[in-house]
Amino acid sequence: MAWRRIKQRNCLIGSECNECKTLFYPPKLKCKKCSSSNLSEFKFSGKGSIVSFSEIRNPLYGFEKQTPYTIAIVKLEEGPMLTTQIVDFDKIEIGTKVESCLRVMHTEGHSGMIQYGTKFKPAE
Ligand SMILES: [Zn+2]
């Protein structure tokens, strides 16, 4: 799976407010803190740690093939928290260091179109 080696795809693009320097992920067009719309692209390291997690046994539509799966709240090194799926792990706990990786999110019903998205796995 050569695409996994393409490093820059693993990075997380968010935004940074140029007025108050608050960071956001996913990116925002308007700062939630100071309401400025003067934001620019910010590249996160993709590293963080698990704040909380839970195993999902009743999947949302489109996720049936992946049940059960684990959803966690990850706090990025740079500060923002996000909800994400954790993959490729034997055991995780609160505080486990994780990093972003690009994985197939789901395939569209009839078209078979594959959508990729960011997930997290334990950091090596
Ligand atoms: Zn701001």
- What value does the Rg take, in angstroms? 16 Å
The major β-sheet equals: 5 strands, antiparallel
The CATH topology of the largest domain: OB fold (Dihydrolipoamide Acetyltransferase, E2P)
* Number of separate helices: 0
Task: List each distinct ligand once.
Answer: zinc ion
What strand line-up does the widest sheet have? 6-5-4-7-8
Uncertain parts: 1-8
CATH architecture descriptor name of the largest domain: Beta Barrel
Order of helices and strands: EEEEEEEE
Structure description:
The protein has 124 residues and is mostly beta strands. The chain has 2 domains: 10-44; 46-124, OB fold (Dihydrolipoamide Acetyltransferase, E2P). Helices cover 0% and strands 47% of the residues. The strands form 2 sheets. Strands 6-5-4-7-8 form a 5-stranded antiparallel sheet, with no helix packed on it. A 3-stranded antiparallel sheet has the order 2-1-3, with no helix packed on it. A hairpin with a 6-residue loop joins strand 7 (97-107) and strand 8. The two termini are 18 Å apart. The relative contact order is 0.19. The structure holds zinc ion. Zinc ion binds next to loops.
What keyword list fits this structure?
single chain, disordered N terminus, binds zinc ion, 2 domains, three-stranded antiparallel beta sheet, 124 residues, mainly beta, 8 strands, OB fold (Dihydrolipoamide Acetyltransferase, E2P), five-stranded antiparallel beta sheet
Q: What's the topology here?
A:
Blueprint: E1 12-17, E2 23-24, E3 39-44, E4 47-56, E5 69-76, E6 81-86, E7 97-107, E8 114-122
Antiparallel strand pairs: 1-2, 1-3, 4-5, 4-7, 5-6, 7-8
The structure holds zinc ion.
Residues 17, 19-20, 22, 31, 33-34, 36 line the site of zinc ion.
